[in-house]
C-alpha cells in the first residue's frame, strides 16, 4: 500500500467549486482508502495498492472530470517523495517577507522550460532553483502573484501539467494523520 498526494489544479476558483466531502467521496468510490483532504485548495491524501502512477493519475483525472464536469488536471506524488521535496527546499523557508513555494510538474520538459526562465529573474524579488521533479521558488510577499515568474507559470499552456503549493501547505500534508 502506497500513500499518495493528488495535487489538483484550478478547483474552488474560477467557478469550479468542489466540496471536500464530494472530493473525498470521489477518491473513495475509486477504491482508495485513508482518503483525507487538506485545506480547500485540492490536496488529497490517499492509500492505494495500484503501482502504475501514470494509470492512477489518468484514472483520477477521468473520475474528477466526469463527476464535476471540468477538465481535471492533477500532479501525483507519493508521500515519501513529497517529504524529500520539502526537506530539499534550497532557500530559507522562514525568510522574513518571503513566500516559499514548490512548483510541481507532471512533464519534465515543461519544468525544464520554466527553469530556463530563472537566470533572467531579479534575485532581489524572486529566486528559482531546480529540484527532483520540481522547481523551488521563493518570492517577496509584497510582489507575490505579480512577479515575472508567477506570470510565466500562470500561462494557459502550463495549466495542464503544473501546480504550485506553499511550503506550509506541504508541511500540513505531511503532518496529516492517516484517515480512520
UniProtKB/TrEMBL annotation:
Q: Which Pfam families match?
A: DUF1697
Q: Where are the transmembrane segments?
A: none
InterPro entries linked: DUF1697
Q: Which domain of life is it from?
A: Bacteria
Q: Which PANTHER family match?
A: BLL4334 PROTEIN (PTHR36439), DUF1697 DOMAIN-CONTAINING PROTEIN (PTHR36439:SF1)
**Protein known as:** DUF1697 domain-containing protein
Q: Which organism is it from?
A: Cryobacterium algoritolerans
